[in-house]
């Protein structure tokens, strides 16, 4: 069967799939042109109609069964274990909510109740089973541990308001709950809670009050835009986090913007600091106002000075500028619009299998989930039945800014605190994922009273990268060739996105045929822009009249719980060192060359690499007790694709909350109590964080022959430029890491792929094609069969 192809089509491929593309459905290895090879169709899972082949298969069956029994059982157990990692279902979410709401001692009310002085559920998501319990199901087929929910409850209706997390079990019919604690029993400060729709509604109210006082100024400034009583010329706002400068504070800088398409890049130069800590919104106060580079202690002071004509350099914002932030095409197009560009097709159907959250493809299998707090996770990742990683999961994404306005200098976005996992919205077929992708709905329960369905928010597809996985043209150097060999590069992609207000992150896992996994994030969406001031040019680029794109660093944190050929792993780094010795075949000369330099890292501190320090070129995780055929420890590398750097000096205030961001790579011993490196509370209390990654390595444990977890930080510096208008584009803005086998196998495991094509010159140099997939791909890819002629000549 052919994998997906990128094809350029003038007609609808979907229409022709049934009639044309499905026609080639043979299993035997294919020899085209004039010659026919007699090949054994090993590994083919389709049926042959030839009686002799049937007989062979019958003879081989008992042997095959013995050999594959373990493999089949392993597959069954992986499949059996997958539901342990599935996100909470609608039924479970509703059951947990009603269980907790029926407990009178909690006094829960609806989350959408307009009061802030209430007890209500903020978030519910799956609580993962402990690893050793999960492994009993995955490795021995034993009964799965019961499912549990993690529930975040905000207790605002208490003398001392607080946030408490509960573990509720068993699902789907809960009857017990216990308080979930964090490492070091750190409490969750009430002020560190994520902001909710209800709190926003009160912010909206106070802004309405404030803007009434400055309506004339705002209208004069913007050419008629106002916050109140507006129809098509309205203002909106963006709020900045963290909400203060010290633990326990909840005061946010808010900037007004024109409410047009892409309002994020329409700041009007009015920023206001509102203290909204009090649970009675009537007691909220304005602490500072910033307008056009000047600070005021109150709105009244600004209005007074404006009316007295004391505001200097009153900006003259352009009118009718909303087009600048839209997607509506402008400029001359050089591409034809009457035909589509290349599309991905699966000429003979799908080659991967999805059963709820369990996915299988080309030897790979894994389970996935998208937790509402922090997003995409993959579990029990196996290749050819062997587990490579128990968990690979997104932990946190931050963007720390700099600028000249108070909003800009305060912006340190820590996105799990905005429930970036629950910010997974619908994906567009043909743009966000190919039309042929499997689209999956996600369900989230964050700041809501009912589960929310996010339709088609995750997609899975096989894609052709348009690049061979490997190829060789073996020239005979006399105008011809000895052979050509090539293997197309098809990968399975698991994708979801997070749109955290202005920014869009595209989260990808790519599973390659050769045992490689790529984890990647691509950044797009609107930049976070502030009002332009001349001093702002130290912090970014002017991208429009009165608009500055502010510099910021994106850093993304991943947890990679590797299990390389078992749980007991070692970690080493490999680099090169120069050696210098007398040339053995010319004694008067010296040989200078590089030699492998391996460093075994035996403790967590020694395996925590700092940004700014030299990073070893190979970071190698291996099983010290398992060798490949050639005597090397079976291992995998983590290869970073990143331009990340630290965002603040170590230990400086907000940096304490993102201590994971000190290390492009840190290796720890697995602990169920160290499940995440960040939390939804870091955003609004980065100074004394509930979860601190530094705690995980502080005890400097031994990491030799241990269950190891690699914590990977990738990222990039983003200095916005005019081409970020209207949106940051994905090319060049993707970072991530690869998991690559390193002596794990005895040879390239993609040798088992039947997508290989070999061509040799036959009689009279007529090419003889050897392949294991059908000759013709189907009309929606090419009209004719594969052809190749390896000759070359002068012309
Ligand atoms: Cu950016």
UniProtKB/TrEMBL annotation:
GO terms for biological process: amine metabolic process; response to antibiotic. The keyword Ubl conjugation does not apply. The active site is at residues 415, 503. Residues 343-751 form the Copper amine oxidase catalytic domain. The modification 2',4',5'-topaquinone is found at residue 503. One of its GO terms (molecular function) is diamine oxidase activity. Residues 24-50 are annotated as: Disordered. It comes from the Eukaryota. Topaquinone (TPQ) is generated by copper-dependent autoxidation of a specific tyrosyl residue. One of its GO terms (cellular component) is plasma membrane. Residues 92-176 form the Copper amine oxidase N2-terminal domain. It is an enzyme of class 1 (oxidoreductase). The keyword Metal-binding applies. Residues 193-292 form the Copper amine oxidase N3-terminal domain. InterPro entries: Cu_Am_Ox_Cu-bd, Cu_Am_ox_TPQ-bd, Cu_amine_oxidase, Cu_amine_oxidase_C, Cu_amine_oxidase_C_sf, Cu_amine_oxidase_N-reg, Cu_amine_oxidase_N2, Cu_amine_oxidase_N3. Contains 1 topaquinone per subunit. Keywords: Copper, Metal-binding, Oxidoreductase, TPQ. Its EC number is 1.4.3.-. PANTHER family: AMILORIDE-SENSITIVE AMINE OXIDASE [COPPER-CONTAINING], COPPER AMINE OXIDASE. Belongs to the copper/topaquinone oxidase family. This is Amine oxidase. It comes from Knipowitschia caucasica (Caucasian dwarf goby). The lineage of its organism: Eukaryota, Metazoa, Chordata, Craniata, Vertebrata.
């Amino acid at each position: 069967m052919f994998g997906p192809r990128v094809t350029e089509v003038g007609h609808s491929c979907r229409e022709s799939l049934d009639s044309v593309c499905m026609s080639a459905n043979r299993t035997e290895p294919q020899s085209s042109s004039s010659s026919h090879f007699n090949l054994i169709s090993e590994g083919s899972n389709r049926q042959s109609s030839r009686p002799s082949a049937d007989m062979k298969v019958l003879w081989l069956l008992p042997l095959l069964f013995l050999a594959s029994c373990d493999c089949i059982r392993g597959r069954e157990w992986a499949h059996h274990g997958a539901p342990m990692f599935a996100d909470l279902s609608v039924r479970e979410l509703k059951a947990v909510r009603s269980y907790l709401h029926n407990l009178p001692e909690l006094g829960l009310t609806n989350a959408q109740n307009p009061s802030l002085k209430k007890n209500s559920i903020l978030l519910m998501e799956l609580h993962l089973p402990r690893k050793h319990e999960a492994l009993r199901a995955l490795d021995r087929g034993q009964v799965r541990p019961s499912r549990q929910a993690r529930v975040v409850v905000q207790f605002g209706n208490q003398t001392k308001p607080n946030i408490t997390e509960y573990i509720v079990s068993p699902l789907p019919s809960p009857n017990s709950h216990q308080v979930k604690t964090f490492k070091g029993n750190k409490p969750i400060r009430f002020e560190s809670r994520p902001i909710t729709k209800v709190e926003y509604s009160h912010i909206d109210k106070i802004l309405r009050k404030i803007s009434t006082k400055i309506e004339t100024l705002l209208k004069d400034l913007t050419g008629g835009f106002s916050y109140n009583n507006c129809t098509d010329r309205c203002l909106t706002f963006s709020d900045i986090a963290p909400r203060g400068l010290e633990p326990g504070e909840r005061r946010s800088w808010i900037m007004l913007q024109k409410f047009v398409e892409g309002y994020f890049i329409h700041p009007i130069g009015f920023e206001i600091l509102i203290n909204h800590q009090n649970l009675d919104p009537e007691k909220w106060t304005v602490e500072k106002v910033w307008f056009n580079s000047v600070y005021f202690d109150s709105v009244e002071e600004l209005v007074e000075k404006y009316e007295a004509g004391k505001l200097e350099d009153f900006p003259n914002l352009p009118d009718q500028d909303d087009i600048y932030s839209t997607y509506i095409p402008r400029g001359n197009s050089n591409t034809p619009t009457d035909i589509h560009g290349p599309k991905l097709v699966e000429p003979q159907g799908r080659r991967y299998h999805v059963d709820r959250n369990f996915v299988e493809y080309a030897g790979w299998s894994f389970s996935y989930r998208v937790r509402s707090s922090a997003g995409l996770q993959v579990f029990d990742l196996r290749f050819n039945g062997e587990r490579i990683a128990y968990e690979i999961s997104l932990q946190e994404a931050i963007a720390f800014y700099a600028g000249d306005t108070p909003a800009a200098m305060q912006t340190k976005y820590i996105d799990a605190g905005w429930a970036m996992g629950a910010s997974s919205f619908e994906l567009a077929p043909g743009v966000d994922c190919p039309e042929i992708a499997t689209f999956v709905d996600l369900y989230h329960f964050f700041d809501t009273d009912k589960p929310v369905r996010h339709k088609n928010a995750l997609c899975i597809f096989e894609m052709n990268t348009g690049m061979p996985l490997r190829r060789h043209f073996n020239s005979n150097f006399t105008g011809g060739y000895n052979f050509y060999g090539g293997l197309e590069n098809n990968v399975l992609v698991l994708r979801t996105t997070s749109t955290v207000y202005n920014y869009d992150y595209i989260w990808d896992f790519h599973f390659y045929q050769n045992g490689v996994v790529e984890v990647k994030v691509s950044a797009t969406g609107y930049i976070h822009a502030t009002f332009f001031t001349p001093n702002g040019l130290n912090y970014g680029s002017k991208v429009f009249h009165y608009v500055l794109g502010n510099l910021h660093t994106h850093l993304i944190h991943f947890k990679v719980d590797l299990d390389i050929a078992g749980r007991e792993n070692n970690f080493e780094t490999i680099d090169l060192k120069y050696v210098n010795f007398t040339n053995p075949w010319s004694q008067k000369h010296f040989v200078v060359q590089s030699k492998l330099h391996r460093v075994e890292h035996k403790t967590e501190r020694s395996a925590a690499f700092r940004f700014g320090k030299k990073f070893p070129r190979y970071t190698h995780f291996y099983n010290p007790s398992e060798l490949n055929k050639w005597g090397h420890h079976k291992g995998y590398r983590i290869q970073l694709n990143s331009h990340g750097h630290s965002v603040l000096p170590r230990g400086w205030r907000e940096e304490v909350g993102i201590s994971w961001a000190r290390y492009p790579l840190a290796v720890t011993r697995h602990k169920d109590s160290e499940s995440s490196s960040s939390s939804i509370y870091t955003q609004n209390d980065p100074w004394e964080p509930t979860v601190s990654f530094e705690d995980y390595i502080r005890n400097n444990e031994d990491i030799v022959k241990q269950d190891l977890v690699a914590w990977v930080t990738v990222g990039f510096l983003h200095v916005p430029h005019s081409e970020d208008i209207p949106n940051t584009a994905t090319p060049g803005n993707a970072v991530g890491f690869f998991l690559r086998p390193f002596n794990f196998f005895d040879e390239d495991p993609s040798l088992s792929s039947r997508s290989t094509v070999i061509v040799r010159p036959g009689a009279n140099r007529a090419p003889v094609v050897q392949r294991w997939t059908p000759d013709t791909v189907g009309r929606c890819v090419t009209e004719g069969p594969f052809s190749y002629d390896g000759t070359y000549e002068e012309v």
